[in-house]
Every structure is written in C-alpha cells, then in structure tokens.
Amino acid sequence: MAVTLPMPAVVTTLLVAVRMIAFLVVAPPFAQRGVPGPVKVALGTGLALAVAPGLEPAEPASTAAFVGALVLQALVGAGTGFLVYLLFSAVQAAGGLVDMFGGFQLAAGFDPMSMTNGAQFSRLYQLLAVVLLFASDGYQLVVGGLVRTFDALPLGVGVDLARLGDAAATGLTDMFVAALQIAGPLLVVLFLADVGLGLLTRVSPALNAFALGFPLKILLTLVLAGFALLALPAIVRALAGEVPTLVPRALR
User: Fold this and answer.
1) Widest CA span in the chain
2) pLDDT at 3 over 60
3) Is 251 in contact with 75 (CB distance < 8 Å)?
4) Cβ count within 10 A of residue 191
5) Whole-number mean pLDDT of the chain?
6) For 193-230, how does the pLDDT look when each residue is reduced to its tens digit (9 = 90+)?
7) Are 207 and 200 in contact (CB under 8 A)?
8) DSSP code at position 163
9) Radius of gyration (C-alpha) of the chain in whole angstroms
10) Spatial contact of 52 and 138, defined as CB atoms under 8 Å apart
C-alpha cells in the first residue's frame, strides 16, 4: 500500500509548524520550563495541521530556498513571541519594583522556571500571571494572535526587520510604563513611609527611625500587597486582550 502526500501541502505544514513552535518556545505562558519541550512541539504541530489547509500552498524553488524559508519562519515566530513576552513581563517587573522598594530584594534567588533572578513578589506576580492565563483561557487569545500572524504576514513574504525592531522597542517602553501602573499605588505608599521616617529622624535623631524602617516597610508591603493582587486578574485579562492585535500590527 503506497501513500502519496502532496509536496506543497507538506512544505506548507512544515513552514507553519516552524513558526508556531518558535513562537511557543518564547511566548508566555507556554515558554515556562514547566511545559515540556515535546509538548510545545506537539502543540505547534497540531496547530499547524489545523491552520495549514487554509493557507496558500508554498513551493520553494530549491532546497536552499526551503531552508531559507524555514529560517525566516523561525525568525518571525521568535520575534512575535518576544513581543508577547515583553507584554506580560510588565507583571513580573511590577513585582520586582515591589521587592526593591519593600526591602525584599536582599532575598533574591534564581527561578529555574523562568530562568531569571527575582525575589518573592517578582516570582509571585510571574507565577500568578501564568496561572491566570490558563485559568481564564487567556492562553487562547495568545494562540489567536499567533494564528493571525499568517494573515498579516503570509508564507513566502519577507518580514520587515526594522518594523519588528520598532515594535520591540515600543513594547519595551510599554512594559516599563505598565509595570509602574501596576505597582504604582504600593510604591507611593512605600515612598511616603520613607519620607515619614526621614522626617521623624530629623525631629528626633536619637530615635533612630531608620532602624525600624525595614520591618515597617515589610509590614506595609505584606498588608497592601493583598489589595494589589486583587487587581491582577483584570490586568492579565487586559494584557491577553492586547495580543490578537499587537502581534499582527507588528508585522504589517
């Protein structure tokens, strides 16, 4: 029994799978080390089998052209995945700001799940964002943004690296702004606590108010962080809603 497969369809599926796997390796929540590599490959291949029949078949003229097309799709997938990574890094960056201003930065450690160094709130915010993405079906919006990249940049069309670089620079700026917006209220309270301790030390130098500053700021951080976490589901939902438009816009 001989099984004959149409070569254009096979090539198209391979190109689609390479872009999707490269995206899933970089973009959250699939980029976590808790998601095994074979699962990412299987998920990307399964999505490619579902998406490829609706695309225009690709037929590279030679083996060199086919290898170049594979590299291009890997670049597009990794680049768009990096944009999504920057978008959700705002949550972890907000936790890092809370650690720095609250006095938790001294207890920073290596996180093998995200392959980054971070203290308690940085890792807590990052893990909560991943959990909320899966619990609220936000990961489906991430996958939807990935599928829309084939409308913005079909197979066989070159990518504008300058436009992709501008989108990455803009995403980096937006990440810092979003981190300040997320952690801003708590940072203001901690700053006012520092100002109050400074004034108290100025009025009564013998009191040595700064010796009480560290435990006081830690107490304020722990008390107010619970209220800050209440807003995290809405923030993650809003960030996930940006993905279906952010990724295609960076390629057009």
Assistant:
1) 93
2) no
3) no
4) 11
5) 79
6) 777 777 777 777 666 666 777 777 778 888 887 777 78
7) yes
8) H
9) 23
10) no
